[in-house]
Amino acid sequence: MSAPIQPVILCGGAGTRLWPASRGARAKQFLDIVDDESLFAQTLARVAGPAFADPLVICGASHVETVREQAGGRAIRLLVESSARNTAPAIALAVAASSPDALLLIMPSDHIIDDVPAFHAAIERGSQLARDGWIVTFGIAPDRPDTGFGYIASGMAIGNTGFAVERFVEKPPLDVAKSMIAAGGYSWNAGIFLFRAGAMRDAMRVHCPDILAAAEDALANGGDNGTARYADLASFEAAPAVSIDYAVMEKYDRVAVVPVSMGWSDLGSWHAVHSRAAHDMADNSCRGDGLFHDSRGCLVRADGRRVSLIGMENVAVVVDGDDILVMPLARSQEVRAAAALRE
């Protein structure tokens, strides 16, 4: 019988694309954006059962207590980043803390997956490839041309379980996205990975040895209080702050993709939140005390305030404390600019 898969939940993001609701200790992954459970709690629930070991959660020091609270008594292991260094250093910490033969399932903590059985079936297919030394990524079957995601081009079939990755495509302009969807063989890059720790360690030694060395030093020089393991600050900050895609995935020659349709969303904008939330007959979505008169396709998150919209279309109003965000939903990708100025 195979050893259980080790879930690794990346929980260090700030979620500024959902500012002002997401900020600081109240990062996106800890909010109940569209359901009654936080995104982090939903992520934990997806990896319950005998196929999975107790999750390893990688987070920042400011989120430790929130992680413990939202775990709801679930057995977890905590690995605390001393500073935010992007996904490659975070994954390097998990690799350095694991035995070479451990299968690590890397997951963001702030995504939605509606069809969990389809997710589990994809993991089962991907585990065969991972045990054979492939670094596996899970590609989301696209249902539209979208400029907000990176894409993965599938190459040669590997049995009946997946495909060798031909190339990764950065977030494309709309005409390129349309042509890729029309051509077929492309999927969205969800940032979910499965691999043997030893395979990723070998890849990092070749393509980003400075990141791996910094992570190994950070663990060796860090502390452990019995409930959490802390990475050493000076050691960890020696790691360049880059994504795993840039550091390894785009360079390594044994990367496979397992395409899957599983009702996935990264909830990467207020526009995405609106598309997933409950709506009235006029396609308006509201949490809080919102009133819509002659308005369509709007989103209100009122935070206890009374918000009234009259004659508006496709507008978002998000209230959090003294901060009020008003914008066309179509410009949701620009929220980070406001967050940078206000925070």
From TrEMBL:
Coiled coil: which residue ranges?
A: none
- Give the top-rank taxon of the lineage listed in the UniProt record for this protein: Bacteria
Q: What residue stretches are annotated with the MannoseP isomerase/GMP-like beta-helix domain? A: 294-336
**InterPro entries in alphabetical order:** GMPP_N, ManC/GMP-like_b-helix, Mannose-6P_isomerase_type2, NTP_transferase_dom, Nucleotide-diphossugar_trans
Q: Which residues belong to any copy of the Nucleotidyl transferase domain?
A: 7-278
Q: State the Gene3D superfamilies in the record.
A: Spore Coat Polysaccharide Biosynthesis Protein SpsA, Chain A
Please give a single GO biological process term from the UniProt record.
Answer: GDP-mannose biosynthetic process
Q: Name one GO molecular function term.
A: mannose-1-phosphate guanylyltransferase (GTP) activity
This chain belongs to which protein, by name?
Uncharacterized protein
